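Cross-posted from the bioinformatics board.
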Amino acid sequence: MLAPAHPNSADRPEAIPQALAVHAKGVSLTFQTADGEVRALSGVDLDVAKGDFVSFIGPSGCGKTTLLRVIADLERPTAGAILVNGVPAEKARLGRHYGYVFQAPALYPWRTIERNVALPLEIMGYDGADRRDRVERYLKLVNLSGFERKFPWQLSGGMQQRASIARALSFDPALLLMDEPFGALDEIVRDHLNEQLLRLWDQTKKTVVFVTHSIPEAVFLSTKIVVMSPRPGRIIDIIACDFPRNRTLEIRETPEFMRIAQRVRAGLRSGHSYDE
Amino acid sequence: MTSSVLSAARPAQIRWHPLVLRYAPVVAIVLALIVLWYVAAALMNMRMVRDAFEREETPYTVSDLIAGTMDAERPLLPAPHQIIETFSDDVFGWPVTSPRSLIYHSWVTLSATLVGFLMGAAFGIVLAVLIVHARTLQKSLLPWIICSQMVPILAVAPIVIVVLGSIGLRGLLPKAIISAYLCFFPVTIGMVKGLNSPDPMQRDLMRTWSATPTQIFWKLRWPSAVPFLFASVKVSITISLIGAIVAELPTGAQAGIGARLLAGSYYGQTIQIWAALLAASLLAVGLIAFISLLERWIGEVMGARA
């Protein structure tokens, strides 16, 4: 169940606009570790509108992955309330409202690519014909047609991550949660996949919440950048980023892009994140 | 150009056939062992042969002595050719249903081994599944499982056979039970490890899809455990063969490799003992080879790297 709402942040679901994909109010999460308490998140307020592409950026330890996991109901907040698609996070998870892409592809090595993509469909009880149809469609969407019968180890890292994106999309969730999906890839592959991801976001009209530690990646992809800072993990700035939805890599040369990147950098610096 | 000059200056290198390169070390070791065996046989049987000559007061030479060590009827250590001779006699010299046929005895032991192994492996897997799914069971079961392996089976086997016999269980089943008792342990240990082997991301994925525990078991835990299962099964199947043989020893079994070993030692038939041992090791090799083939085939289906 959802953690009880913080007394100071009484949650009123009827007041939440239906257009919000994520609504977080006073979310805090404290881990009990052997060395004492770690405040991974402290008083996080965040709204993500449907159709947005929101990036969390910050140095390691700033709680950006933890916040994504709270949205996914993989961690429970110790205080505060969180709604995903207008329902509590746990209900959203049980209702399969989102697809999650991890840092590593995490494909199951004993399954071929097509059977990996079909795995969530099997679990959710889609019938055989529908499964085949969706696997074909989403592998095509991520440019992996022709690799259906390959095993994961036969594909490059970038291709594996694309397969994992197809897997997250296969059951057509409205929300896509991505935790540094391209962090382990080289710059050239990353640029290419960023463009593909944007095209996919534009075509499918999904909401994407994306964790990264790369400033150019965040500015290039996002409609909204959430700058976070560690000890305790918190949001220190939220920057709108109003490039057209069908942007290309060329916008990285524009003064507007530089200006936003500059503001992100300033935000990161003000969090004293690199001094310690 | 320089290289051609160099190679011309050298004597032509001998190119060995790849098969030779592959098997030469194995063959060399086997040959060395056989030579050692002959030397040991000559040395160990020497006194016995000399005593026999002296008892009969016949003159003898060194070569008579050595020849005698090679074809004694009840040698301390039979020479390899004697074992092979007896082995092939016992295997090919009798119809397979005859109690003198080694194939008959091997089959008796093998059937108990296979039944015991299947029972033990199934029991081991069930235990592992229980342990993985319930923490309290891990704490309550594991000490007993470990204790069970400290019991000297040779001492317990007759008790088990007598008890089971008194409730009407005879023949194959009591042997299979002893064999299962010995061989479930590696399967349990391996499977507990294997069922717990999926990494956190693979588990989290299942959570994000809100998979049921049954789905998590069949679609994640079980396939992850398969390589561990094969590693355990290879150990376990040879142990279950040993278990079946041991179960035949103290019970006065009429048939089986264990009975053969026992009869051989009663009557001082050392060659028969060694022939039975040879049969047992061939059975073990066969079982392991079968498991390895199965492992390779399933590995291919499950996308293991060649």
